[in-house]
C-alpha cells in the first residue's frame, strides 16, 4: 500500500484523484508501466536519517508501517520568535512534507510551552512566562495568547503546514503530575518542601545518562556550578519535575506536593506519550536542546515507560551572527517581524518570508548557518532566479517529436531530476536539491530563448523536469511566492501589527513605548491617526 501511495505522490496524471482518496481502477497496470522507469525506481530508495543518539545515518523504519509519529519542541511563548527559532520550524516542516510525499500518514505534534520552570545549562532557573508578564504588565495567559498569535502568524508567512496536534503545557498539567507520581513510585525522584527533583545520579547508576549529548556524569558533577536556591538538591545535576509556587507566583496548580507548577522537561515527555505513545518514531528540535532538555526527557521517559521515548533523534544546527549563536541571552537576536520589516540596526532592509525560508534551506539542516545581509541578499537573488525559471517552465509547451536529438543533454536533464529524491532520502539534503535546480534553470531559460531547441530532449524528459520542479520546489521545499501578497499587502500587515502593539502599550499605560512606535513610524513617513471610534488609521506623509 505504501508503494501505491508513493506512486500517487509522484504521478501527476493521478495526483488530483489520489488527493481525494480515490483509487483508479487501472492503477496496477499504470504502476507496472511506470515502475520500469529508472526515475520511479530511484524514488523508492531508502530514506536515511542522521540519528543524533547513535551519531550516524540510519535507514528509517517506522514503528508502524505506513505511519510516522513525530514530536518537535515548539516555542516558549514568553516573547516573539527570532530568526534562530525559524530554522527548526522550517526544517521540520520540510521533514513533515517529505514524509507525507513518500506516502506516510504523519502525526506531527509540536508543543507550545506556556508555563514551566526552566533550567538551562549554566543559568539561573526561572519561570520565563511569569517574569515576562510582570515586565509587560500583562496576565500570564494574556502574554501567552499575544505571542502565540504572533508565532502562528509567522508560521503562516513561512508557508509552514500546521502540525497535527499543538498541545500546551498548561493544558496537560494532569498528565505531567501523573508522570511525576510514576517516577517517584519507581524511586527515581524525591520531594523537598514541595519541590520534586529527578535523581540523576541514581538513574545514571543503571542507565546511560548522556547517551544523546555525550556528557559524562562525573565531569558534570565536577564542573556544574552551584546556583542560588539549589542547596536542597541531592546532586547539582538533578533537575526539577515540579516546583513549589511562592506566594507571589500567579501560575499555580494543585498537586500531591502542594500548589506549584511543572518543570520544563516533563511537559514534552508527558505530551509526546499522550499523543504518540511511550515510544514513537522521530523527536526533533534545535541542537541547543540536546542538553539538558532532550537528555532529561530521555531519562524521565525511560523510567516512566521502560523504553527509549523516540527511535530517531534529529537536531538542526544553529544560526550564528559573526560566529556566535543567535539567542536572547546574547542580546543579538533579530525578531521575525524585524526580519520582515527591516526594523533592526543589523539589517540593511526587510526580507520576505520566502527569502528567509530559502536562506534556511540552502544549507543542510545539520550545518551551521551564519547570518549576514550579504547572505540574505544572495538568497533573495537565488530565489528570484529559481522562481523565474519555474514560471518560464510552466508556460512552455513541448513541441518536439517525442524523441531526443541531443542524447547527452537529455541524459543530463534526466540525471539531475533523478538525483532529487536521492538527495532528500540522504538525510533531507535540501542544499543539494537546490543545487540541481540551479543547474536545470539555464536549460529552462535556453528552451525559452531558443538556444536549446525543444526537440533536443524527449517529451518524457520535459514532463519529468516540469513535474520535478513542482514537486521539489513547491510541494517539498514549500516555496510559494503567492503567499507573500503584494508589497502593499505586506506593508499593511506590518503596520497593523505595530498599531496593535501600540494599542496594547497604551492600554497598560506604557506611554513611552506607544509614543516611540508613533514617532518612529512618522520618521519614516507614516503618520498614525487616532480616530474617534477608537480605531487607528495611517497615511503616507508626502515629502
From TrEMBL:
Gene Ontology cellular component annotations, sorted alphabetically: cytosol
The keyword Cytoplasm belongs to this UniProt entry's keyword annotation: yes
Limits of the Cysteinyl-tRNA synthetase class Ia DALR domain: 419-491
A Pfam family annotated for this UniProt entry: DALR_2
UniProt keyword annotations, A-Z: Aminoacyl-tRNA synthetase, ATP-binding, Cytoplasm, Ligase, Metal-binding, Nucleotide-binding, Protein biosynthesis, Zinc
Positions contributing to ATP binding: 328
Cofactor(s) essential for the protein: Zn(2+)
Annotated residues for binding of Zn(2+): 73, 268, 293, 297
Catalytic activity, EC: 6.1.1.16
Cofactor note: Binds 1 zinc ion per subunit.
Catalytic activity: tRNA(Cys) + L-cysteine + ATP = L-cysteinyl-tRNA(Cys) + AMP + diphosphate
Entry GO MF terms: ATP binding; cysteine-tRNA ligase activity; zinc ion binding
UniProt KW Ligase keyword: yes
Motif stretch ('KMSKS' region): 325-329
Matches recorded under InterPro entries: Cys-tRNA-ligase (IPR015803), Cys-tRNA-synt_Ia_DALR (IPR015273), Cys-tRNA/MSH_ligase (IPR024909), Rossmann-like_a/b/a_fold (IPR014729), tRNA-synt_1_cat_dom (IPR032678), tRNAsynth_Ia_anticodon-bd (IPR009080)
Main localization, broad class: cytoplasm
One of the protein's GO biological processes: cysteinyl-tRNA aminoacylation
Motif 'HIGH' region per record, residues: 75-85
Subcellular localization(s) per the UniProt record: Cytoplasm
Subunit structure: Monomer.
Family in the record: Belongs to the class-I aminoacyl-tRNA synthetase family.
Name under which the protein is recorded: Cysteine--tRNA ligase
Gene: cysS
Amino acid at each position: 500500500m505504501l508503494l501505491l501511495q508513493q506512486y500517487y505522490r509522484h504521478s501527476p496524471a493521478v495526483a488530483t484523484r489520489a488527493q481525494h482518496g480515490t483509487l483508479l481502477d487501472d492503477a496496477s497496470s499504470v504502476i507496472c508501466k511506470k515502475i520500469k522507469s529508472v526515475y520511479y525506481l530511484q524514488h523508492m530508495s531508502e530514506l536515511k536519517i542522521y540519528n543524533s543518539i547513535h551519531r550516524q545515518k540510519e535507514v528509517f523504519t517506522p514503528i508502524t508501517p505506513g505511519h510516522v509519529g513525530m514530536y518537535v519542541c515548539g516555542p516558549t511563548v514568553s516573547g516573539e520568535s527570532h530568526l534562530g527559532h525559524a530554522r527548526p520550524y522550517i526544517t521540520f516542516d520540510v521533514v513533515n512534507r517529505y514524509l507525507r510525499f513518500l506516502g506516510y500518514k504523519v502525526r506531527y505534534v509540536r508543543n507550545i510551552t506556556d508555563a514551566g520552570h526552566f533550567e538551562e545549562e549554566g543559568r539561573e532557573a526561572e519561570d520565563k512566562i511569569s517574569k515576562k508578564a510582570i515586565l509587560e504588565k500583562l496576565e500570564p495567559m494574556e502574554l501567552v495568547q499575544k505571542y502565540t498569535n504572533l508565532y502562528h502568524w509567522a508560521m503562516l508567512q513561512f508557508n509552514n503546514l500546521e502540525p497535527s496536534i499543538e498541545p500546551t503545557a498548561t493544558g496537560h498539567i494532569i498528565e505531567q503530575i501523573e508522570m511525576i507520581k510514576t517516577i517517584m513510585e519507581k524511586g527515581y525522584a524525591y520531594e523537598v518542601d514541595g519541590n520534586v527533583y529527578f535523581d540523576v545520579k541514581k538513574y545514571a547508576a543503571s542507565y546511560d545518562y548522556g547517551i544523546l549529548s555525550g556528557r559524562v556524569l562525573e565531569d558534570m558533577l565536577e564542573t556544574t556550578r552551584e546556583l542560588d536556591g539549589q542547596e536542597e538538591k541531592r546532586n547539582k545535576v538533578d533537575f526539577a519535575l515540579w516546583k513549589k509556587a511562592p506566594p507571589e507566583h500567579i501560575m499555580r496548580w494543585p498537586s500531591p506536593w502542594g500548589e506549584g507548577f511543572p518543570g520544563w522537561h516533563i511537559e514534552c515527555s508527558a505530551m509526546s506519550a499522550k499523543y504518540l505513545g511511550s515510544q514513537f518514531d522521530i523527536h526533533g528540535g534545535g541542537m541547543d536542546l540536546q542538553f539538558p532538555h532532550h537528555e532529561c526527557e530521555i531519562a524521565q521517559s525511560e523510567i516512566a515507560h521502560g523504553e527509549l521515548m523516540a527511535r530517531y533523534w534529529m537536531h538542526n544546527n544553529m544560526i550564528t551572527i559573526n560566529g556566535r549563536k543567535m539567542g536572547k541571552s546574547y542580546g543579538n537576536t533579530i525578531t521575525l517581524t524585524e526580519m520582515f520589516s527591516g526594523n533592526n540596526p543589523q539589517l540593511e532592509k526587510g526580507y520576505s518570508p520566502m527569502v528567509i525560508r530559502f536562506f534556511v534551506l540552502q544549507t543542510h539542516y545539520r550545518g551551521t548557518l551564519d547570518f549576514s545581509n550579504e547572505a540574505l541578499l544572495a538568497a533573495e537573488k537565488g530565489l528570484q532566479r529559481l522562481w523565474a525559471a519555474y514560471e518560464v517552465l510552466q508556460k512552455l509547451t513541448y513541441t518536439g517529436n517525442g524523441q531526443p536529438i541531443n542524447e547527452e543533454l537529455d541524459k543530463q536533464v534526466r540525471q539531475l531530476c533523478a538525483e532529487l529524491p536521492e538527495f532528500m532520502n540522504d538525510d533531507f539534503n535540501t542544499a543539494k536539491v537546490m543545487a540541481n535546480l540551479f543547474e536545470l534553470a539555464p536549460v529552462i531559460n535556453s528552451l525559452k530563448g531558443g538556444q536549446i531547441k525543444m526537440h533536443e530532449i524527449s517529451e518524457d524528459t520535459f514532463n519529468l523536469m516540469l513535474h520535478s520542479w513542482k514537486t521539489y520546489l513547491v510541494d517539498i521545499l514549500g516555496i510559494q511566492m503567492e503567499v507573500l501578497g503584494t508589497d502593499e499587502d505586506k506593508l499593511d500587515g506590518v503596520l497593523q501589527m505595530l498599531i496593535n502593539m501600540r494599542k496594547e502599550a497604551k492600554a497598560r499605560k506604557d506611554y513611552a513605548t506607544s509614543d516611540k512606535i508613533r514617532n518612529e513610524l512618522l520618521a519614516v513617513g507614516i503618520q498614525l491617526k487616532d480616530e474617534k471610534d477608537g480605531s487607528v488609521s495611517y497615511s503616507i506623509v508626502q515629502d
